[in-house]
Design a protein that fits this description.
Subcellular location: Cell inner membrane
Number of domains: 1
GO biological process, one term: protein secretion by the type II secretion system
Order of helices and strands: HEEEE
Pfam families: N_methyl
Number of helices: 1
Protein name: General secretion pathway protein I
CATH topology: Pantoate--beta-alanine Ligase, Chain: A,domain 2
Structural class: alpha+beta
Strand content: 25-35%
Helix content: 25-40%
Number of strands: 4
Family: Belongs to the GSP I family.
CATH class: Alpha Beta
Shape: rod-shaped
């Protein structure tokens, strides 16, 4: 008795290897894009926290004490965020330099805040500037 020959259908070894190579390439591209997205989410979270710390520091500056020109620095979250605040008299570019300054008059000050964060490599920076009106403390007025 003879059996009819049926042709076996299936995948060859080369076809299986090519399919796995295509699958590996697709997964590599997918995981690479997910890794980049995770890095951007982390950067966004760090920048958001830096902005919140900066806003908080600027809100507290000059409250309960008069502002004095100078520079101060410090850190948030145990050194993760470092800040530098520079307070200087504001020079209005539209006014002549020879404008008279009255000692007891309120003074416009420029506050420049820089917050840095990040580990090794290039650090991330946030720079903010604002103006504040500083009223001199009457108890420190010079008597003639």
């Amino acid at each position: 008795m003879t059996f009819p020959r049926t042709r076996q259908r299936g995948y060859t070894l080369i076809e299986v290897i090519v399919a796995f190579a295509i699958l590996a390439l697709a997964l590599t591209l997918l995981l690479g894009s997910l890794s980049g997205a995770a890095r951007q989410v982390r950067w966004s979270a760090d920048a958001g926290r830096a902005a919140l710390h900066a806003q908080s520091l600027l809100d507290q500056t000059g409250v309960g004490e008069s502002l004095q020109p100078g520079q101060s620095s410090g850190e948030f979250e145990g050194g993760r965020y470092r800040w530098t605040l520079d307070v200087a008299p504001y020079a209005d570019p539209s006014r002549p330099n020879a404008a008279a300054f009255e000692p007891g008059a309120p003074q416009l000050l420029r506050l420049a805040l820089q917050v840095e964060w990040g580990d090794a490599g290039p650090r991330q920076r946030l720079r903010l500037q604002t103006l504040r009106l500083s009223v001199p403390d009457p108890s420190q007025a010079v008597m003639p």
